[in-house]
Every structure is written in structure tokens, then in C-alpha cells.
Amino acid sequence: MNRLLAPGFLTGLFVVLFWVLCALFGPWLEPFDPYKDDLMNALAPPSAAHWFGTDQIGRDIFSRIIAGARPILSVAPAATLLATLCGTSLGLITGYAGGWVDAVLSRLIEVILALPLIVVALLVLVALGPSSLNVTIVIALVFTPIIARTVRSAVIGECKLDYVPAAALRDEGALHIMFVEILPNILPPILVEVTVRLGYAIFTVASLSFLGFGVQPPSPDWGLTIAENYGLIVGGYGWTVGFAALATASLVVGVNLVAEGLQDAVR
Amino acid sequence: MIRLITRRAALSALTLLLLSMVVFAGGQLLPGDVGRSILGPLADARAVAALNHQLGTDAPPVWMYLRWIGHLLRGDMGLSYAYRSPVAPFIVHALGKSAALAAITAVTVVPLAIGGGIIAALNRDKWPDKLITLGGLSLTVVPEFVSGILLILVFGVWLRWLPISANTRPGTGVLEQLRHLILPALPLVLILFGYIARIARAGMIEALEADYTRTARLKGLTRRTVIFRHVLRNALLPTITVVAAQTSYLLGGLVVVETLFRYQGIGSLILTAARGKDYPMMEAGILTVGLAYIISAVVADMLVALLDPRNRAATQ
Q1: At what angle do helices B279-307 and B232-245 cross, to 10 degrees?
Q2: Cys bridge to B113: B75, B197, B207, B221, which one at CB 3.0-4.6 A?
Q3: Chain B residues near residue A252 by CB distance under 8 angstroms
């Protein structure tokens, strides 16, 4: 447990908690309405009034950065949670039951890994239309077999231990053995996999927003903010995108530091 | 050895077949009514039916898939809905541009990351190791458009060292063209560095602790000779597989980086086609990306098989 007190893990935890607080209590922290335009004050550089400056239509960027924590911290965790539920069940079943499901699963993963996640997401989102819900579903769909694989190998390891055949001899049902006997024992690797996946989910959600296939305007989402304003860099209006980029970078690095810390602790 | 290659090729062919089904399903079945999705919800039903008939998208799905595959096998990627001309020349042109960007990235990141991994392994648990491992891993999770924006702001706008556009006027010299590709390549380098360095580090540590290394040292060879002759060779084998596996990330990153830097490669081609619902273009682009990945994975496996002395012994 001492490893959880490592500086990297604590820094990551602190950063993630900061953004979670912004997502939860954003409306009370924002000095301005993040959606309210102020055309007389458009593209104002950072100042005492507007700490991070204003964007093309004069919206306060500091407020929009705080408000932008909410879209990404709802879509990415929702997708990860959905994938964890489906992937864990699938992994338990294939690991415990085995057989042909196993072969199908590994082939499926190979196909999924052959395409970049962004490209798979584009393929599906073009057909279904861009929206937060569809982004959640696509990411969950791709992550499910990957989580299932991790869970499956953990399950196979557990099945070699005495308590599993013992439970079978007690005449416990397969479902009971999978979810009551095995599952609690493989929670640590699942937890690590989930934090790692959460990092990738944030990565993907942000990239999709940037490409225009995620959250739609006028959302203060960071990826979307960068997509809307990066043409202005040449004009010297770097603050319209710089802070959103720093915010995204700090969140993903924070989540990754937490994942690394957990991984070390489990090992 | 030959059995290994045949098995690998058969598996890849199967993956490719499944991939084509996924791409077809995503591009032609998921949208449902292709004509409707192009013309929009307000279009007349007869116009939609006419367009579907013209595009051949009113046939049964299985038949459409077989026809599509048949054309593909003969090198015919179909007609672009947006440009009303064959897709193939667009793909070839874009692929060339992306290959240039990918090559610059690979040439930069592979030596850098392997060097980083080796330094980390030789200084295990000391500060260079922690810096390279944790720093590298943190960079791998930062999306390319985020690091790209920060790099543009620092090196393009603030320091003015590098051009912020990937495109050059026709007739620009090769060196100047390369200079324009540095900034677009950097986000990809940052993403890949951590993965490759981590595997190189792990391979090095394993080789350093192996019996043959101890034997070589006990034989009286210098540390330098042991590292160069014995450790490196064994340590870098797994790295090849990882480099190939990262091709997928690299290709995905191209979509984002090419969009950010307005570079007309395969990634931006797929994105433009996706935005314009140009399904044949999108499918051909995605399939090309998948094929590139599968090929690089096979090549890497062959390379590992060839370089690994244990495999060589088995064939002789």
C-alpha cells in the first residue's frame, strides 16, 4: 500500500480530483456564463477580468475551461463503465467456460486492433451520427473485448486454484462460481485495466471532439474548443486554444499517473 | 519456418477478410439507406430510390458485399460519390504523402526510443530511468492534437523556429519540405516514444539479468563488449514486434495530425470522406489503413523469426 503514496500517484490523483470537482461544481466556480457571448470583447487577451482571455465571440475562456471538464468527464467514464460491465461478464464466461468462444474472441480482438480506434469510431459515427451517446457506445464496443481478454486470463489463472473446483464440488452453480467466488479475487487487475482504459477513453473522446464527431457546439468541450479556434493561432490568438490543450493534457496525464500507481501497487 | 510463415499468412488473410466485412458493414449497412443519407431527410422518395439504383445500393447486402470484394480484388476501389471519379488515384496520392510523414516519424522515434530504453535499463531505478519511463508513459496518453497545439504555440508562434504548416508551394526543395514535416511528425514521435522505450527497457533488463550475460562477464569480457555483443542483440528482438504493433497508433494519429496541420494524407482523406458521406472513398481508405497495419505486423513477425538465432537453428 506504501506504493500508493508515491509522488507520481498522488500528483495524478490530485489533478484528477481537481477536474472532477470542476465537473461537479462548475457552475459555482465559473466567474462568467461560459455560453454568454460578448462581441464587444471578442478575442481579448488574458487580463485581470478574463484570466484566460476571450474567444471569437467574446466568451470567457476561463469559465469555458472549467465547464469543459463536465462533457469529457461524463462521456469517457460512462464508456469505460459500460465496457467494464460487458467486458468483465464476457471475460468471466469465456475464461470459465472456454471452448470456441475463446477462439472467436481472440480473432475479434485481432480485427479490432488492426484498425486504429479513431478510425473504427469514425466508421460507426458516420453511420449513426455524431453525439455523446454514440461516442459512448462506440468506445464501449471497442473496449469490451479488450477488457474481456484481461479478465479472461485472470479467470484462467484463478481456475487452477483449489477454491474453484471446491465450489464446484459443493454443487454451486456456474454463475455463482463466476460472480461470487472468482470475481472478488480478480478485482485488482480489473481495476488497473479500467484506469488504463479510462485514460484511452479520454484520449479518444477528446480526439473525436476535435475531429467534429463528438460533442457538438456550443459545448465548452476542450477538444471542440481547439477545433473551433486553432485556425486563429496564425493570427497570434494562442490563448484561445493553449489553455484547452493544457487542460486536456493535465487530465490525461493525471489519469495515467493514477493508473501507473495502481499497477505498481497491484504487482 | 515455412509452416510458421504459412500459418501467419493464413491468419492475416482471415483478419483481412473479417476487416473487410467490418468496413463494409460500417460503410454500407449501418447507414441504412445510402441515398437517403446523402440527399438528406427532406429529399423526394423517388430521387432517393433513383440515386440508390444508380449507386447500386438497392441490391441485397450479401450481393453488394461480394460485388465490392470482387471489384477490390481486381484493383477497382469504386467511384467516389463526391468527385464522381475512381477512388484509387486519390488513395495512392494520399498514401504517398502519409508515408512520407510516417517515415520521418519512424526514423526519428525508433532510434530515440530504443536509445532511451537502453539508457533507462542501464540506470535502472535511478533518475534517468524514472524520467524516461514516467515521462515517456505520460506523453503516450496525450492526444496528438493537444501536443500538436502546444508544439505549434512554442516552436511555431513563440520561438518561430519551425513552419506551422505542413504544406509547401510546388517546386520547394526536399530539405525545405522535410522542415515543414518536422512539427507534424513531433506529436506522433511523442506518442510512440513511451511504448517503444518501455519495451526496449524491459528487453534490456531481461537480457542483462540472463545467464549468458553473467557467463560473458565471468569470462572476463568488458561490460561494453558484453552489452554490445550479447545484451543488445537479444534485447532488441521484442522491440521490433512492438514497433510494428504501434503502426496502428501511428496510422490513427495520422488522421488527427493531418487534420491539425491541413496535410492531404490518407488520414485527412478518410476524415473528409467521412464528413461528406463519401462511403466508397472512406471504405477504401480505411481498408488501406488496415492492410498497412496487417502487412507491418507480418513483416515484423518474419523479421523476428529471421533474426532470432533459435529459429534459425531450427530451420537448418
Answers
A1: 170
A2: B197
A3: 141-143, 146
- Are A249 and B142 an interchain contact pair (Cβ–Cβ within 8 Å)? yes
Q: How far is it between the farthest Cα atoms of chain B? A: 86
* pLDDT digits 0-9 by tens, B185-210: 999 999 889 888 888 888 888 888 88
Q: Which comes out higher in pLDDT, residue B41 or A224?
A: A224
Q: In this complex, do A252 and B249 lie within 8 Å of one another by their Cβ atoms?
A: no
Confidence of residue B315 (pLDDT cuts 50, 70, 90): very low
Closest to B139 (Cα-Cα) out of B112, B171, B168: B112
Q: How confident is the model at residue B1 (pLDDT cuts 50, 70, 90)?
A: low
Write down how long chain A is.
267
Q: Measured between beta carbons, which residues in chain B are less than 8 angstroms from residue A256?
A: 137-138, 140-141
Helix (H, G, I), strand (E, B) or coil at B86: strand
Q: Which residues of B touch A116 (CB under 8 A)?
A: 248-249, 251-253, 255, 289, 293
If we measure between CA atoms, which residue out of A239, A186, A231, A182 comes closest to residue A210?
A231
The Cα–Cα gap between A90 and A95 comes to 8
Q: Give pLDDT, residue A15.
A: 94
Q: Is A237 helix (H, G, I), strand (E, B) or coil?
A: coil
Which of A117, A252, A255 minimises the CB distance to B252? A117
Task: Report the C-alpha gap between B61 and B32 in whole angstroms.
Answer: 10
Distance from CA of A31 to the nearest CA of B (A): 25
Query: Residue B147: its chain A contacts at CB < 8 A?
Result: 245, 249
Q: Check whether B119 has a pLDDT greater than 60.
A: yes
Q: pLDDT grade, residue B316 (50/70/90)?
A: very low
* CB-CB under 8 Å, A236 with B259: no
Burial (0-12, 13-18, 19+ Cβ within 10 Å), B154: middle
Classified as helix, coil or strand, A161 is: coil
At residue A54, the 3 state secondary structure works out as: strand
CB contact under 8 A, B259 and A111: no
What's the pLDDT band for B310 if we cut at 50, 70, 90? low
Q: What is the pLDDT of residue A250?
A: 94
Q: The cell 464508456 sits on which residue?
A: A79
| Residue B213 contacts residue B222 (beta carbons within 8 Å) | no
Size of interface A-B (CB pairs under 8 A): 151
Between these two residues, B63 and B32, which has the higher pLDDT value?
Answer: B63
Question: How does pLDDT run across A195-219, given as a tens digit for each residue?
Answer: 889 989 999 999 999 998 888 888 8
Instruction: For residue A204, give the chain B residue with the closest CA.
Output: B143
Distance separating alpha carbons of residues A235 and B153, to the nearest angstrom: 11
DSSP state of B79: B
Assigned C-alpha cell, B62 = 450479401
